[in-house]
Write a structure and sequence with these properties.
This protein is mainly alpha-helical and 166 residues long. It contains seven helices and two strands. The longest helix has 17 residues. Keywords: Mitochondrion, Ribonucleoprotein, Ribosomal protein.
């Protein structure tokens, strides 16, 4: 890439001396870059692909639900996952096990996320110091409603109404 840029600088210098505009130079560079973008690397080989003639269709994924209800046997599930991840190094009281090794912490949290369908957000990772912290996080239910939905379902005073058509 640096060699290409040096060649371009030399060409610009030569063309300035000859009176050729910068636009003429860089338009050719842009066209070449656009041609190179049609090359796709497939399994270690380069393959030329024709540019699609139709516009790509954008499909919107379904809205993600953040609702989470902790299962009845959460402590048993967490204890089993702790035994699998930590093995023989797990202390007798598994809730006091410290998550100082980031690799073990990652393995535990990814297994729990896959099993329970609820991931730990990045902002909460720094607060996970022990298995008790993980248990506290996964024991907290998460509602998928907003304040307006909660207000519309609640009993409101007679002088208060929610206007949804606003």
């Amino acid at each position: 890439m640096a060699a290409l840029l040096l060649r371009r600088v030399r060409v610009v210098y030569d063309q300035r001396c000859l009176g050729v505009s910068r636009r003429a130079l860089w338009d050719g560079f842009r066209k070449k870059a656009a041609e190179d973008s049609s090359i796709v690397k497939v399994s270690g080989q380069l393959e030329l692909t024709p540019s699609p003639s139709s516009e790509p269709t954008l499909t919107r994924p379904p809205p993600r639900s953040r609702k989470y209800m902790p299962p009845e046997n959460l402590e048993h599930l967490l204890e089993a996952q702790m035994k699998e991840v930590f093995g023989s190094t797990l202390p007798s009281d598994w809730r006091e096990a410290m998550l100082t090794d980031n690799l073990l912490k990652f393995r535990l949290l990814t297994r729990l996320a896959a099993e329970l369908g609820h991931t730990v957000p990045n902002s909460c990772l720094q607060h996970m110091h022990s298995a008790g912290d993980v248990l506290k996080f996964y024991a907290t239910p998460v509602k998928d409603t907003n304040k307006f939905d909660e207000l519309s379902c609640a009993e409101l005073p007679s002088n208060l109404k929610i206007n949804w058509g606003y």
